[in-house]
Amino acid sequence: MDRDWITELYYTAMGIYKIPERMGVRFRDEGMFVRNVLARNEAPYVEHPAEEEIYRRIDGGQLLLVRGPKGDGISMAVHAALVKKMLIDRAVVVDPIAAGDCLSDMARLSEVVDAVREAGREPIFYIDVSKPGHYPQRPWNGALYKPTRLEKFERTLDDLMAIFGIREVTTVVVLSDDLYGTLRDRLKEHVTAEVGYGDVRFLRELAQAYSGCGEDVAAEIAEAAAKYDCGRAILTTLASDWLAQRNCDQKAVAEALKAAEEKAKKFFVEYIWRTVLNEDRPYANLHAPLIILRHFEGPVPIEAAEEFLIGLGFEWCKVRNSTAVRWLAERHCGLIEDAIKNAVATAMTKRIDEQPYRALRSAVVDYYKHFKARGYFK
Q1: How far is it, in rounded angstroms, from Cα 221 to Cα 203?
Q2: Domain assignment present for 207
Q3: How far is CA 84 from the centre of its chain?
């Protein structure tokens, strides 16, 4: 077996990427190919309108925050910009989350910085909850990544902020808008690239790449997807794939978008479970009353959400300043709100045989009536 290949595989396992292929990017005569929303091996890359700006801002030992609506192609745009940094500037991309426990503290991260710089190259730290390639159907067969647990992401972000201040390493943090409000206070001084504005030209090219349909069909898909306030790239990709399997029937565009929307909501429900609730049932049980509260009130003030949980008997130390509490209390974009409603419907209507859950649900409903009577909700 080729020694260089073994070395690159080792670096990949450590979350250290020196060549584009280890980030799931390949180049052919036809262009650039990437891992994609359909969890297939690869798809043609469609250049995101924000890619060039992101590339220019990844520079000079500064901290770059890339933010925008979830599902609008932000992660792929950052991926492409980082690959360009590898090829043009010979940068080495370091993803501590992908490394698991191998790069789980500042000392190890600092060692990586030293090793890369001794080799005459410059490291770029990079973290993203939802990297490209993490949207397959359940179970997660074919997924390159699963969404990162929020508690893990927070710890890694804190480590990177600490080492950023000491070693002046260029750092890229990708936050979708739903996480920005809860995590922005953890960031040191930074520059921001805001992404996601429903660019119809980009969505049209995306539709053509994934469907193979003509310009008229692709344009109709793009214009329909652009009307959403998030998830526009995901919806375009899923609807295009749906139409490709039905001979690009232009009369079925609305049906394709509806099917894509339902699938996208399932993705976001999985995202809530795996990222916000850390894929942990006891942790989810702690926050279950907020899911039920959503049934009655929708988004609520964070302080009211905290008081609600504490009043139910949950420990103060686990509730105050909980990222999950803040996330569940806040309003998000339409598709995420719809995903929360789906979770609420399950919590309120599903016949669950477990007596503890039925008792909890009953207690939450009773306490909600008492809580509302005290004037917490208008």
Answers
A1: 8
A2: no
A3: 22
Is residue 99 predicted with pLDDT exceeding 90? no
Q: Which domain holds residue 331?
A: 280-373
The CA-CA-CA angle for residues 42, 46, 48, to 5°, reads 125
Indicate whether 160 pLDDT > 70: yes
Measured CA to CA, the distance from residue 150 to residue 246 in angstroms comes to 38
CB contact set of 313 (below 8 Å; sequence gap of 6+): none
State how far the Cα of 311 lies from the Cα of 252, in Å rounded to an integer.
50
Asked if the structure places residue 275 within a domain, the reply is no
Q: Which residues, at least 6 apart from 353, have a Cβ–Cβ distance to it below 8 Å?
A: none
Instruction: Find the radius of gyration of the CA atoms of the chain.
Output: 22
CA angle centred on 158, ends 8 and 119, rounded to 5°: 30
Residue 131 token pair: 């990297």
Separation of alpha carbons 274 and 101, rounded Å: 18
Please indicate, yes or no, whether residues 187 and 216 belong to a single structural domain of this protein: no
Count of all residues that appear for the chain in the document: 378
Measured distance CA(200)–CA(336) in Å, rounded: 22
pLDDT at residue 357 is higher than 70: no
Domain count for the chain:
3
Residues 33, 150 share a domain = yes
- CATH, residue 178: 3.40.50
96 and 178 in a common domain: yes
Give me the pLDDT at residue 150, please: 87
Torsion, Cα 331 333 336 342, to 10 degrees, reads 70
